Amino acid sequence: MSSVCLSMEGGAAASTPAALPYYVAFSQLLGLTLVAMTGAWLGLYRGGIAWESDLQFNAHPLCMVIGLVFLQGDALLVYRVFRNEAKRTTKVLHGLLHVFALVIALVGLVAVFDYHRKKGYTDLYSLHSWCGILVFVLYLVQWLAGFSFFLFPGAPFSLRSRYRPQHIFFGATIFLLSVGTALLGLKEALLFSLGDKYSAFEPEGVLANVLGLLLACFGGAVLYILTRADWKRPSQAEEQALSMDFKTLTEGDSPGSQ
Amino acid sequence: MSSVCLSMEGGAAASTPAALPYYVAFSQLLGLTLVAMTGAWLGLYRGGIAWESDLQFNAHPLCMVIGLVFLQGDALLVYRVFRNEAKRTTKVLHGLLHVFALVIALVGLVAVFDYHRKKGYTDLYSLHSWCGILVFVLYLVQWLAGFSFFLFPGAPFSLRSRYRPQHIFFGATIFLLSVGTALLGLKEALLFSLGDKYSAFEPEGVLANVLGLLLACFGGAVLYILTRADWKRPSQAEEQALSMDFKTLTEGDSPGSQ
């Protein structure tokens, strides 16, 4: 669909598919609205955020939405957006966004465990917390495996090309599970505090429901951009040349298979 | 990866990838355990199911898990499992499984609205119900569009091949949203009835959390089987011959592109 032209440096610079920037812009609009609306919900109805008080809990949803939903989603889109940069640059950006996401999510986790400890609440009894721990452990393992295989020098190319599809599948799955876990957490927060007022269409309930739909829509938008076959990042001449040296690579990863 | 041999009738019968049957068997084990465990949860802790009493509500989770999770998931897998049947047979099976899923889901919807009406409860205020209505409407639209484009004779081949990737994307997305909505519903049912007992690790809470993880795992297993590139259904000779007649089809749907 998109034409391929050779650049001066000998790398193949593919033109960007016409509709891709609009879809990416839309996903970013959804993502930023999501973060803003999470902030608005916590500010308007939950008293805002502070570390050294009961408001410490509120750092949890905000950090998780910024880290494990918005930044994680954007890290997945890096390979679609930066199509013509060197693969290594894109990789480093992908890894860095995931580091930011991981650190912010860690702050969010500390916030909720610290809050529970101070209040004497039980930890890890709910479905939200079980899914959350599962997501966080998977995310950490995926990050370490991704770093070892793709960024740390030395992993053989044949191993990289075998692990690559698994990395992509688990990356998308962990992202979707993060969105699902956020929905469960939102629901929990609403049922704990709103009680009967939820069924009376209180403004907080309606706002939080819209926030939930936005979460699902952001997940859907990222998934759509990721899975459009003709939007995949084309192989570049440098990688193609490299892959010629490794017979094992040519089968599943040939330039023509994109 | 998988070798292709011409059968006696002249159709191309591709061999089944070696690992596929194990993954499908595993997904079915997960799916059946999921349905059995939903039944066990409702039977052991919620008094079972009956239409003409307060137990009418319990028909809702069971019908939704059977229809919009298990049967919908299996309908998506039909094209991976029946690789060597005629495309039309597989299509009809895909459509029929979705009809069963739709009818069972409709019974589940009637159960909860009827229960709410009898009890005087408010309808459609929660995030679970908003997501649920969204899923059901999308599912209905997807079914009608799928029927009109692919089963009803007369849709031009060029239109079919343009709509096909959208149908696949929205099919997977609606399925995942169904799983997410089921998780929200489960969480709602637990928080409504267990209250403080949830944090005391009551058996019902633990069982329902395991049920929630099973739901997520079934979603993940179906997604994995669907997205493995080398497990996609190969084009068959009859379709290949047909596609020769329609130049518009050959670009994105050629036999070699699988």
From TrEMBL, chains A, B:
It comes from the Eukaryota. SMART domains: B561 (SM00665). This is Transmembrane ascorbate-dependent reductase CYB561. The keyword Transmembrane applies. Keywords: Cytoplasmic vesicle, Electron transport, Heme, Iron, Membrane, Metal-binding, Translocase, Transmembrane, Transmembrane helix, Transport. InterPro entries: CYB561/CYBRD1-like (IPR043205), Cyt_b561/ferric_Rdtase_TM (IPR006593). PROSITE patterns: CYTOCHROME_B561. Residues 26-227 form the Cytochrome b561 domain. One of its GO terms (molecular function) is oxidoreductase activity. One of its GO terms (cellular component) is lysosomal membrane. The chain crosses the membrane at residues 20-44, 64-82, 94-113, 133-155, 167-186, 206-226. It holds the Pfam family Cytochrom_B561. It catalyses: monodehydro-L-ascorbate radical(out) + L-ascorbate(in) = monodehydro-L-ascorbate radical(in) + L-ascorbate(out). It is found in: Cytoplasmic vesicle, Secretory vesicle, Chromaffin granule membrane. Its cofactor is heme b. It is a multi-pass membrane protein. The keyword Heme applies. Transmembrane reductase that uses ascorbate as an electron donor in the cytoplasm and transfers electrons across membranes to reduce monodehydro-L-ascorbate radical in the lumen of secretory vesicles. It is therefore involved the regeneration and homeostasis within secretory vesicles of ascorbate which in turn provides reducing equivalents needed to support the activity of intravesicular enzymes.
